[in-house]
Amino acid sequence: MDSLEKLPGNSQDVIPGRLIWRWLAWLSLAFCLLLAGAYLGLRWYIWPQLDELGPRVMAYISEQLPRPLAVGAMRGDIVAGRPVLRMEGLRMADAQGESLLEIGVLEAELSITPLLWGEIDLYRLRLQDVKLVAKRSSPDMLHIAGWSLPLDKPQDGTWLHWLLSQSRLEVSNLALHWQDEVLASEVRVEGMRLEAVNQFREHRWRIDAKRIGGALQEVSLVAHFHHGLLKKPAQWRSWQGNFFFGAQQLDLGKAIPWIDAHWLPSLLPQGGQLQLATWTDFSLGQVRKLQVRVAGQDLTLMTPTGTLQLARLQTAFTALPRFAKGSNNIEAIDMKLAEWSFDDGLGAQLVGASTPQRLLIAADGALLEGQLALEPFEVAQALTLVRRLPLPADLKKSLESLRARGQVEKFAVHFEDSLRLGSGDQTRYGANLAVERLAVDVRPRESQGSRWPSFEGLSGEVHIDETGGTMKLAGESASLRFPGLFEAPDFAVQSANAKVRWRYGARPSDVRIELDELEFANADGRARVKGHYQTGGKGAGLFDLKGQLIDVRAEKVVRYLPLVVSKELRRWLQGAVQGGKVSRADFVLRGDIEDFPFSTPGTGQFLVEGQLAGSRLDYARAWPAIDEVSGLLRFEAATMQIDMRSGKVMGLALADTRATIAELDAPVLRIKGAAKGQADDMIRFVNASPIAAKINRFSQDMQAQGTASLDLALVLPLEDLDRSEVRGTVMLQGNELRFAPQFPSMSNVRGAFGFTEDALFVSGAQAQFLGGSVAIDGKTDAQAVLRLQAKGRASAQGLQSLVLHPAMKRLEGYLDYQAEI
């Protein structure tokens, strides 16, 4: 034991190590023998058969071809331990000797194991400098390199099975000559390269082409898929995988004539250039997902409304097909847009926002559903572009009713063709906008004119949908327009604030506008309006509006009277009311506008009522104007009324004076009132009026002193002032009056002096004249000459003042007299 313990190590640890080395040595020897056997097999068994393998391989390949393949030269070699056959100058011809297939070089790399059993199996097949002819002789017959493939009959898949069974297949510098006798077109494909790797169930294919005719350049097709378990590779309905297709340039104008029209998407541009990249996932004979990135230039789209030219287009989206129940037929495509933009080269550009966006497109190209959002854009240019897009009819009709400009900072739209989707009986859509300095002119659907209010220079938010819309807008230095409502429809405003809603009715022409709030201020004053408008009724529609005008310049009130007020009255007001202010004017317009001014009870209401202050009323041509008017201006139904609490005319103070027009359609102004003041001012009033001419200017030289009162009634047809009627009475209370400078004055004159439009009269006047009392009556005759009858008593002293003669100084006492002047 002691000697064993002194050994360097335990024998139990040494023995297993030696066994490992022994096994490794035997394995190495076996591997070397295997390599030697393989080499000897290649050298003494396979190599001598290379000359015989060539014809066998050609026979194997020819079995897969429809016609014999002639070979120019053939040789064999061992490359990297595998037998390789190289053939050159291969050619297949039709019965007339025309070349169908030419192969410059064919290299077939054989699998070794099948050769040991006397079988041929290609491990790798490489073709170089290939020329191939393909032709379509009828819509249902295709010819490829001698194969005739009837497209209207099921194929046995022999050729496809052979291609998918090759472990590796490489084709370089392939030139394809395609002839389509149906479409009378011819295409040449140049510089094509194909590479296929098939391993058990997995297949990887790649095809590249430098040029396809004059339409495509730098084209690539890459596929990676596997076939179903326990399924043959040619059973394509069991395939699952994906493929990529890309082209650096696609000329649509040249490519479209190569394709049958029924295969073309309805929205495919008819001309222009595209750069295209697509990734497609497929499974069990159906496309499951399509990812696309496209950039285009100078595109021409044919839409239901005409031709749409796009200078640039860029988009990236994912498309998910929707299949009909129990069928492989696609009924719609669900597109999710990652990015998109396009412009027409004329300044109109739309760029998609980064928010989620989606389109649902039917198989026939119709838009079924979608949500889109845009980056900021200029309204007018974008609206011109959008109108030309293939949108649903209802949405397009609504867009056609808009005339707009300004900047949209935010825009989101959604739409749904509920009828086709089975969720309703009409198209649903909506749009939300945030706008800056927006100008909008809205025209009702199926209307030729614009009778809707419009605006310019407002900012805020707008929502539109198939039922109507809402607007919340405000702005400074803006303008509002009310066509068909006011004679001067445009209002420049310093500030404005509006909240408007509108709703469509059952018919396209039925619209209800709710004016929740409209406030604006301009050089005329300030205004507030609320109410609603409804189309229908007897014609132009029904109004229900209430509002106020605040601190408005009085001469501008006429601007805010609707057109239904007669033109003559508006012209009269425009010239009659001058200066001053209306501190507040309330107005109401309610009823069918065809019944305006609502004279018949129960038909509606029209009312404008405001307080005048500091105005001048130039009520009729050639009549003295009334200054410093303060009072109430009122329009109600067919009447106009001005109740003047105060005013002045030729220095006379007016009180309780009323001006009325009883019928706005045939305006006749009636003024009735009273004035107090200096009697001499009343004479000046008569002299300054048309009355003076009609009384032969009798009162031209009259003079008076003291105060008096005047009652006046005027009837002035505004359309014909020559037919004016006047009734006036001047009440003298102890005044001094002189009819002419050379005529002695009368004192303490009491009585009534009246006048009409063509006459002057004195009735029951009493005065002190020539030292005694006198009673005077009289009137103007047909020749406008005033005839006075005087009866009184004169004193000697009074007569001396009338007749300056020495004999008159001897008179004493009194003289009763009667005189006619």
Note the topology.
Blueprint: H1 2-5, H2 11-46, H3 50-63, E1 73-79, E2 82-93, E3 99-110, H4 112-116, E4 122-138, E5 141-144, E6 147-150, H5 158-165, E7 168-180, E8 185-199, E9 202-212, E10 216-226, E11 240-251, H6 252-255, E12 271-283, E13 286-303, E14 306-323, E15 330-343, E16 349-351, E17 357-362, E18 367-374, E19 377-378, H7 379-386, H8 393-400, E20 402-417, H9 418-421, E21 427-442, E22 454-465, E23 468-481, E24 490-504, E25 511-522, E26 525-536, E27 539-553, H10 567-576, E28 577-578, E29 581-592, E30 604-617, E31 626-636, E32 639-649, E33 652-661, E34 668-678, H11 679-688, H12 691-694, E35 703-705, E36 707-717, E37 725-738, E38 746-756, E39 760-769, E40 772-780, E41 786-795, H13 796-802, E42 814-820
Parallel strand pairs: 4-7
Antiparallel strand pairs: 1-2, 2-3, 3-4, 4-5, 5-6, 7-8, 8-9, 9-10, 10-11, 11-12, 12-13, 13-14, 14-15, 15-16, 15-17, 17-18, 18-20, 19-20, 20-21, 21-22, 22-23, 23-24, 24-25, 25-26, 26-27, 27-29, 28-30, 29-30, 30-31, 31-32, 32-33, 33-34, 34-36, 35-37, 36-37, 37-38, 38-39, 39-40, 40-41, 41-42
